[in-house]
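User: C-alpha coordinates for both sequences below?

Assistant:
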Amino acid sequence: MMKKTVDTEGLLAAIVEGIQNKKGHGVVALDMRTLHNAVCSYYIICNADSGIQVEAIGQSIEEVVLEKCGEKVLRTDGYQNAYWVVLDYFDIMVHVFRTEARDFYRLDQLWADAKTEIYKDLD
Protein backbone atom coordinates (compact mmCIF):
# COMPACT_ATOMS: atom_id res chain seq x y z
CA MET A 1 0.00 0.00 0.00
CA MET A 2 1.42 3.37 -1.05
CA LYS A 3 1.22 6.29 1.31
CA LYS A 4 -0.73 9.15 -0.24
CA THR A 5 1.32 12.26 -0.84
CA VAL A 6 0.16 15.46 0.75
CA ASP A 7 0.05 18.71 -1.22
CA THR A 8 1.98 20.88 1.24
CA GLU A 9 1.05 24.15 -0.45
CA GLY A 10 -2.66 23.20 -0.49
CA LEU A 11 -2.44 22.19 3.16
CA LEU A 12 -0.76 25.49 3.99
CA ALA A 13 -3.51 27.45 2.22
CA ALA A 14 -6.26 25.48 4.01
CA ILE A 15 -4.63 26.09 7.42
CA VAL A 16 -4.37 29.84 6.77
CA GLU A 17 -8.00 29.89 5.61
CA GLY A 18 -9.06 28.12 8.81
CA ILE A 19 -7.21 30.72 10.88
CA GLN A 20 -8.62 33.64 8.92
CA ASN A 21 -12.17 32.24 9.16
CA LYS A 22 -12.00 32.87 12.92
CA LYS A 23 -10.08 36.14 12.68
CA GLY A 24 -6.72 34.91 13.96
CA HIS A 25 -4.09 37.65 14.19
CA GLY A 26 -0.47 37.90 13.08
CA VAL A 27 -0.47 34.83 10.84
CA VAL A 28 3.03 33.88 9.74
CA ALA A 29 4.44 30.87 7.93
CA LEU A 30 8.06 29.99 8.67
CA ASP A 31 9.52 28.02 5.76
CA MET A 32 11.72 25.42 7.44
CA ARG A 33 12.64 23.47 4.29
CA THR A 34 16.09 25.02 3.89
CA LEU A 35 17.08 24.69 7.55
CA HIS A 36 19.29 21.83 8.65
CA ASN A 37 17.54 19.24 10.87
CA ALA A 38 14.11 20.87 10.58
CA VAL A 39 11.37 18.52 11.80
CA CYS A 40 8.75 19.80 9.34
CA SER A 41 8.41 21.97 6.23
CA TYR A 42 6.48 24.83 7.84
CA TYR A 43 5.61 26.31 11.20
CA ILE A 44 2.42 28.35 11.10
CA ILE A 45 1.97 30.76 14.00
CA CYS A 46 -0.95 33.00 14.90
CA ASN A 47 -2.60 34.45 17.97
CA ALA A 48 -6.00 35.32 19.40
CA ASP A 49 -7.19 37.45 22.28
CA SER A 50 -9.14 34.82 24.23
CA GLY A 51 -9.09 31.12 25.00
CA ILE A 52 -12.45 30.72 23.30
CA GLN A 53 -11.03 32.19 20.09
CA VAL A 54 -7.87 30.05 20.32
CA GLU A 55 -10.05 26.94 20.55
CA ALA A 56 -12.32 28.15 17.72
CA ILE A 57 -9.33 28.75 15.45
CA GLY A 58 -7.96 25.26 16.13
CA GLN A 59 -11.32 23.68 15.37
CA SER A 60 -11.72 25.80 12.23
CA ILE A 61 -8.31 24.68 10.96
CA GLU A 62 -9.23 21.03 11.52
CA GLU A 63 -12.56 21.47 9.69
CA VAL A 64 -11.17 23.38 6.69
CA VAL A 65 -8.20 21.05 6.24
CA LEU A 66 -10.46 17.98 6.37
CA GLU A 67 -12.91 19.53 3.91
CA LYS A 68 -10.34 20.93 1.42
CA CYS A 69 -7.50 18.41 1.72
CA GLY A 70 -9.08 15.30 3.20
CA GLU A 71 -6.44 15.30 5.94
CA LYS A 72 -7.05 14.72 9.64
CA VAL A 73 -4.75 16.27 12.20
CA LEU A 74 -2.23 13.70 13.52
CA ARG A 75 -2.14 15.07 17.07
CA THR A 76 -3.24 18.09 19.01
CA ASP A 77 -2.31 19.52 22.35
CA GLY A 78 -3.46 22.47 24.40
CA TYR A 79 -7.22 22.45 23.85
CA GLN A 80 -7.73 21.76 27.57
CA ASN A 81 -6.51 25.23 28.56
CA ALA A 82 -6.68 27.05 25.17
CA TYR A 83 -3.56 29.07 25.99
CA TRP A 84 -1.37 27.53 23.26
CA VAL A 85 -2.89 24.96 20.91
CA VAL A 86 -0.61 22.89 18.67
CA LEU A 87 -1.87 21.00 15.62
CA ASP A 88 0.47 18.48 14.00
CA TYR A 89 -0.07 17.86 10.30
CA PHE A 90 3.32 16.07 10.02
CA ASP A 91 4.66 18.37 7.30
CA ILE A 92 3.21 21.49 8.94
CA MET A 93 3.05 22.34 12.65
CA VAL A 94 0.46 24.95 13.63
CA HIS A 95 0.74 27.03 16.80
CA VAL A 96 -2.28 29.04 17.92
CA PHE A 97 -1.41 31.24 20.89
CA ARG A 98 -3.24 33.53 23.22
CA THR A 99 -1.70 36.92 22.43
CA GLU A 100 0.16 37.19 25.75
CA ALA A 101 1.64 33.68 25.32
CA ARG A 102 2.90 34.49 21.84
CA ASP A 103 4.49 37.68 23.14
CA PHE A 104 6.13 35.72 25.97
CA TYR A 105 7.44 32.68 24.03
CA ARG A 106 8.37 34.58 20.83
CA LEU A 107 8.41 31.35 18.82
CA ASP A 108 8.59 33.39 15.61
CA GLN A 109 12.08 34.56 16.56
CA LEU A 110 13.60 31.14 17.23
CA TRP A 111 14.19 30.57 13.53
CA ALA A 112 15.32 34.01 12.36
CA ASP A 113 17.02 32.42 9.35
CA ALA A 114 13.79 30.81 8.08
CA LYS A 115 12.04 32.51 5.19
CA THR A 116 8.94 34.14 6.67
CA GLU A 117 5.65 34.82 4.92
CA ILE A 118 3.36 37.25 6.72
CA TYR A 119 -0.37 37.09 6.01
CA LYS A 120 -2.54 40.16 6.28
CA ASP A 121 -5.12 40.12 9.07
CA LEU A 122 -8.69 40.02 7.78
CA ASP A 123 -11.07 42.52 9.33
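Moving on to the next sequence.
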Amino acid sequence: MSLDVSPPDPPALSPAFDPDEYEDADVMGDDYRREELDEYLHDGAWERAFGEWSEHTDLGEPEWDIVRDLGLVAEYDFFWDAFAERVGYHAPGLPEDWKERDLHPNLDSWARVSGINAALTELGQVVCDVLKDEYIDWESDYEAPDDLPDF
Protein backbone atom coordinates (compact mmCIF):
# COMPACT_ATOMS: atom_id res chain seq x y z
CA MET A 1 0.00 0.00 0.00
CA SER A 2 1.16 3.57 -0.47
CA LEU A 3 0.06 7.04 0.50
CA ASP A 4 -0.11 9.51 -2.36
CA VAL A 5 0.13 12.91 -0.65
CA SER A 6 2.59 15.76 -0.79
CA PRO A 7 5.18 15.80 1.97
CA PRO A 8 4.35 18.24 4.74
CA ASP A 9 6.90 20.76 5.92
CA PRO A 10 9.48 19.19 8.21
CA PRO A 11 9.17 19.76 11.93
CA ALA A 12 11.23 22.65 13.28
CA LEU A 13 13.78 21.52 15.85
CA SER A 14 14.34 24.04 18.56
CA PRO A 15 17.94 24.53 19.67
CA ALA A 16 16.60 25.45 23.11
CA PHE A 17 16.09 21.85 24.13
CA ASP A 18 15.53 20.72 27.70
CA PRO A 19 17.32 17.35 28.04
CA ASP A 20 15.33 16.54 31.17
CA GLU A 21 12.27 16.20 28.94
CA TYR A 22 13.22 12.64 27.95
CA GLU A 23 13.78 9.69 30.25
CA ASP A 24 17.03 8.63 28.54
CA ALA A 25 18.55 12.12 28.49
CA ASP A 26 21.02 11.36 31.28
CA VAL A 27 22.97 8.92 29.09
CA MET A 28 22.72 10.72 25.74
CA GLY A 29 25.34 13.36 26.39
CA ASP A 30 24.69 17.04 25.94
CA ASP A 31 25.48 17.72 22.29
CA TYR A 32 22.20 16.97 20.54
CA ARG A 33 23.24 18.64 17.27
CA ARG A 34 19.70 19.82 16.78
CA GLU A 35 20.61 22.80 14.60
CA GLU A 36 22.48 20.55 12.18
CA LEU A 37 19.67 17.99 12.11
CA ASP A 38 17.14 20.77 11.52
CA GLU A 39 19.22 21.97 8.59
CA TYR A 40 19.41 18.47 7.12
CA LEU A 41 15.65 18.03 7.48
CA HIS A 42 15.03 21.29 5.62
CA ASP A 43 17.70 20.50 3.01
CA GLY A 44 15.89 17.40 1.78
CA ALA A 45 16.22 14.64 4.38
CA TRP A 46 12.61 15.05 5.50
CA GLU A 47 11.21 15.02 1.97
CA ARG A 48 13.32 12.00 1.01
CA ALA A 49 12.34 10.06 4.14
CA PHE A 50 8.67 10.99 3.76
CA GLY A 51 8.71 9.77 0.16
CA GLU A 52 10.30 6.47 1.17
CA TRP A 53 7.87 6.01 4.04
CA SER A 54 4.80 6.96 2.02
CA GLU A 55 5.59 4.27 -0.58
CA HIS A 56 5.26 1.53 2.05
CA THR A 57 2.95 2.81 4.76
CA ASP A 58 -0.38 1.20 5.56
CA LEU A 59 -1.77 4.62 6.45
CA GLY A 60 -4.57 5.76 4.16
CA GLU A 61 -5.53 9.26 3.13
CA PRO A 62 -8.38 9.52 5.67
CA GLU A 63 -5.91 8.77 8.48
CA TRP A 64 -3.34 11.15 7.00
CA ASP A 65 -5.99 13.86 6.97
CA ILE A 66 -6.39 13.33 10.72
CA VAL A 67 -2.61 13.63 11.22
CA ARG A 68 -2.57 16.80 9.15
CA ASP A 69 -5.63 18.31 10.79
CA LEU A 70 -4.19 17.77 14.27
CA GLY A 71 -0.77 19.17 13.30
CA LEU A 72 1.01 16.07 14.52
CA VAL A 73 3.99 16.34 12.16
CA ALA A 74 5.12 19.52 13.92
CA GLU A 75 5.41 17.51 17.15
CA TYR A 76 8.24 15.25 15.94
CA ASP A 77 11.56 15.70 17.64
CA PHE A 78 14.94 14.48 16.40
CA PHE A 79 18.25 14.68 18.23
CA TRP A 80 21.72 13.20 18.11
CA ASP A 81 22.22 10.46 20.70
CA ALA A 82 26.00 10.57 21.12
CA PHE A 83 26.01 7.65 23.54
CA ALA A 84 24.53 5.29 20.95
CA GLU A 85 25.89 7.20 17.93
CA ARG A 86 22.46 7.37 16.35
CA VAL A 87 19.70 9.81 15.61
CA GLY A 88 17.07 9.55 18.29
CA TYR A 89 13.50 10.67 17.94
CA HIS A 90 10.23 11.11 19.69
CA ALA A 91 7.21 10.59 17.48
CA PRO A 92 3.89 12.29 18.07
CA GLY A 93 0.89 10.16 18.78
CA LEU A 94 -2.74 10.18 19.67
CA PRO A 95 -3.40 9.91 23.41
CA GLU A 96 -5.22 7.06 25.08
CA ASP A 97 -8.08 9.37 26.00
CA TRP A 98 -8.70 10.38 22.37
CA LYS A 99 -12.34 9.44 22.61
CA GLU A 100 -13.07 11.41 25.78
CA ARG A 101 -11.24 14.43 24.40
CA ASP A 102 -13.13 14.27 21.09
CA LEU A 103 -9.91 15.07 19.23
CA HIS A 104 -11.17 14.66 15.70
CA PRO A 105 -14.56 13.78 14.16
CA ASN A 106 -13.01 11.00 12.05
CA LEU A 107 -11.33 9.24 14.97
CA ASP A 108 -13.80 6.45 15.51
CA SER A 109 -11.90 3.33 16.58
CA TRP A 110 -8.91 2.05 18.47
CA ALA A 111 -7.77 0.36 15.26
CA ARG A 112 -7.56 3.72 13.50
CA VAL A 113 -5.78 5.35 16.46
CA SER A 114 -3.30 2.46 16.73
CA GLY A 115 -2.67 2.52 12.99
CA ILE A 116 -1.92 6.24 13.05
CA ASN A 117 0.40 5.92 16.04
CA ALA A 118 2.27 2.98 14.47
CA ALA A 119 2.64 4.81 11.15
CA LEU A 120 3.98 7.94 12.86
CA THR A 121 6.54 5.83 14.72
CA GLU A 122 7.59 4.19 11.46
CA LEU A 123 7.97 7.59 9.78
CA GLY A 124 10.20 8.75 12.63
CA GLN A 125 12.44 5.73 12.21
CA VAL A 126 12.71 6.21 8.44
CA VAL A 127 13.71 9.84 9.01
CA CYS A 128 16.39 8.74 11.47
CA ASP A 129 17.72 6.15 9.03
CA VAL A 130 17.87 8.65 6.15
CA LEU A 131 19.63 11.22 8.35
CA LYS A 132 22.19 8.71 9.61
CA ASP A 133 22.81 6.97 6.29
CA GLU A 134 22.80 9.93 3.92
CA TYR A 135 23.48 13.13 5.83
CA ILE A 136 25.49 12.60 8.99
CA ASP A 137 29.22 12.28 8.58
CA TRP A 138 30.39 13.34 12.02
CA GLU A 139 31.85 11.06 14.62
CA SER A 140 30.77 11.22 18.18
CA ASP A 141 33.18 12.43 20.80
CA TYR A 142 30.90 11.35 23.62
CA GLU A 143 32.50 9.77 26.63
CA ALA A 144 30.32 7.70 28.89
CA PRO A 145 30.14 8.83 32.51
CA ASP A 146 32.32 6.85 34.89
CA ASP A 147 29.37 6.02 37.13
CA LEU A 148 27.32 3.98 34.62
CA PRO A 149 26.33 0.59 36.03
CA ASP A 150 27.90 -2.58 34.69
CA PHE A 151 25.47 -4.87 32.89
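User: Anything stand out in the second?

Assistant: Residues 19-135 form one domain.
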